[in-house]
Amino acid sequence: MPIRIQHVDSNFEREPLAHPFGFKGGYLTELWQTVALMESASGHATVGLGTQSVLWADSSVFAAHTESGGNALMFALTERALQIAKGTSFETPIDLIEGLVDELLPYARQLTGDAALQKTFVLNALVPVDHAAWLLYARENDIQDFDAMIPDAYRPGLAHRHDRVASIPAFGYEAPLDDIEAAAEAGYYFMKIKIGQPGTQAEMLAKDQERLTAIHGVLGDLRTPYTESGKIPYYLDANGRYASKDTLRRLLDHADRIGALEQIVIVEEPFQDDVEGDVSGFPVRIAADESAHTGEETRRVIEQGYGAIALKPIAKTLSMTLQMAQVAVEHDVPCFCADLTVNPILVDWNKNVAARLPPFPGFKTGLMETNGHQNYEHWDQLTSYHPQAGAAWTQTQDGVFRVGDDFYATSGGIFAPPEHYRNLVRASG
Asked: pTM, whole model, 2 decimals?
């Protein structure tokens, strides 16, 4: 039976970062936590959360506005989505979100004044709406289990059950080498390294080469029991900063010279939008992130030779993620979950997907980036807002989240109301 949305509300909180977080040629100093309430005609009300990252979603919007101004534009889009959804009905959240994306993209381009605005900007704005819609869908259908919530057509993409999920930290341009070494000593064994530093392409490449040399000097000789090679793997994320394939080859040639190439497992989203063609000729696996938002786009990048897909239900919506994961599994292309420096509740929304993805080649655990603990000034306070704060599966132990029967039995606590955020919005009654 269709679910009719009769009431909506929204709000946000500004969360400062402990230090500027550098990637994609810029720096973030705060992240807005958005809240969307969705109430059905039958009286059920659910709260969805989002974390806005304008710099990740569209760096041109970030550069054209103040940091707060860019966030305000994205939040206005979330509010617009809720107002469009109010009074409508949906069979599944996928139907709702697909319709909203189509309607919101031209509106968002007009709102921002950017005719080339990336679809990621719209999807980032839609995350709290999507989150609320899935929880409302579960409530309306008396579902209290993540697996049961997923429509049958998309279950093959999430059919595995890991007992551990790697907790992947991320290190921005200015992250001290001591912090990277400390993370390795604490058991973290898969390191995400932001490349694509500010400056011209020549300046960027020189900085990235120097940075990789320094990091490899710290991590190159360390060992881990969680990979087949026993070595610490590297995950390089360029966020579309490289303007040519030749520039990336020069970086990888440098990695080869210093003995780091064999440890580079993934280079994520290296190229700018105008760099097209096959990417299968590189000696490392190239992963798609911002270049794939839908099932069809995932199929296209796979045809272009991309060898992995970064899934982000916390940044591109669960609705789009399910379609992407299904296409990937049909083409035997591995997936992993990346972060958006989200809050602890959304970490477990992401973890429910990461724990069910097919194994990534060369690894003995599921893979999920989460860097909020490194970047939020008030991470401990944010953690206290989690309905099951303190549960064993919410905590990293020796570099992994242990996702046992208790995690799967509770679906990571995603169906428990988040009281702190619930108090920021109002139901109709």
From this structure: 0.96
